[in-house]
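Tutorial, part two.
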Amino acid sequence: MQIVVIDGQGGGMGRSIVERLKDALPEAEVIAVGTNALATSNMMKGGANAGATGENAVVYNCARADVIVGPLGIILPNAMYGEVSPKMAMAVSGCLADRVFLIPAVKRHVHIIGMQDKTISQYIDEAVTEIKRHCCGKPPGR
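Running the prediction step on this input gives:
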């Protein structure tokens, strides 16, 4: 099972996701893909099996992932202060992964209808639980 974690900015959310995934699914291959080198580096410190940076890394790894996880901004062109290019957003939203799990980390002026009032940590825990449920119910690979 190949899980691609995508993050930008400082990679703090991605690092938390990687750490929790490695605890919950130690056998999974977790690939850290940062929109910048700092984000990738921080996720690697969280225990990812491999890491890559930039637009091509997002496109390449999304095409091979069984599961993708990251902040909601990874499907929005120009999100994260412009770090998410339109090509990156298209690679995530148009991928053939079994599942894409998005953490709703949004600006205060954006309101997602139906979103609950939870902390980022609670959303990450929920995402890891859902990924574990998804991964444990099917054999590795595609």
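The two ends are 8 Å apart (CA to CA). In part three we will examine how such features are distributed along the chain.
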